[in-house]
Amino acid sequence: MTHAPNLPLAGLRIVELGHYIAAPFATRLLADLGAEVVKVEPPGGDPVRGWGSNVEGNAVWFSVHGRNKLSVTLDLKNAEDRARLMALLRRADALVENFRAGHLERLGLGPDVLHAENPRLVIGRISGYGQGGPYRDKPAFGAIGEAMGGLRHLTANPGQTEYPPPRCGVSISDDLAGMYCAMAVVAACWQVKGDPSAKGRVVDVDLVSSVFSLMEGMLPEYGLFGWVRQPQGAAIKTAAPTNTYPCADGKWLCIAGNSDLIFKRLMAAIGRPEMAEDPRFATNAGRCENVAELDAAIAAWTKTKPAAEAEAVLEAAEVPCSRLYDMADCANDPHFRERGWVMEVEDPLLGQVLHPAAPFRLDGIHPREMVRWTGPAAGAHNDLVFTAVARGQTAPIKP
Known about the structure:
By secondary structure, the protein is of the alpha/beta class. It is 37% helix and 15% strand. The strands form four sheets. A six-stranded parallel beta sheet has the order 5-2-1-6-7-8, sandwiched between helices. The protein has a three-stranded antiparallel beta sheet with strand order 9-10-11, covered by helices on one side. A two-stranded antiparallel ribbon has the order 3-4. β9 and β10 (252-256) form a beta hairpin. α1 (22-32) crosses α7. It starts with 12 loop residues before the first strand and ends in a 9-residue tail after the last helix.
């Protein structure tokens, strides 16, 4: 295990009452940036430890999901364990949780109780619909955030009715809510840190509005013109040609040739330079009006070549493009490796495992330095953490 004391959030103390995805994703980002994160799990561990593949009962995903965190186990229905939690929170800068709205209050741990013990505590709360409103008590998972936030409506192919619009393949609404919560918690901690008289804030983040926030200009378009954006499939309604095209080997190539100069290079590369001279295609607006003809011409070319070969031709012409990568492509791509996006990490529970780097680069810090340790076993740091708290230690706790 290595430590990187020059990480920007070193010294920030976070307690996570998180399960499954959203809150643990938020605290993973904070931990990658150097915060001390104490993950409080129930005696059986976070239920997400049972998700997906495993090695001798140790979930592979948790190696990443729980990395750089200290794991302790507490039964929050037990008064003695709630007292231990309160001792943790007295020394913390922030709490991040993703119970259903109102659950903290039902445990006797609502913001009024917590602020009575630690007035400067920032409380980050993630729920399906938020802490207020008519839907606050409804259960929700990530798929519901996608559906109600407007994203799932857009993921179908135009006119397709025989299949439901697909999810994007990951729990995007949980991850978005986690990112927004992490950003807001850091902002609130910054405010408290800069004002000795400041009180702790409550940050209220929900899955639905996290997705809804990505809907670009769709809300003002509806308000002004009554427009409702419809599914576009792999294309973009406002730019052309930008689509994903079939190749000879059954794979797909994403091509973004929508600026005037790039469009000309694209047409030359596929052997159709005359289309670049056609007045109908001289501007992006014209290309959008005639996109079906353009897409047919590009697809006719891509179908004659394997995806990697077509990609190489277009890259040589400086046309933005990419094959649709699967995880094998990501893991073995030389740019991923050179940039440290894919790292080989030693996990005591799993052996050597591949980890994705934190999604930010900091000068002077190699991405590997940001992975100080992998996701630990549930309760692995009980003695370390509770001994430090009993001693009144306020400095960061490090294994």
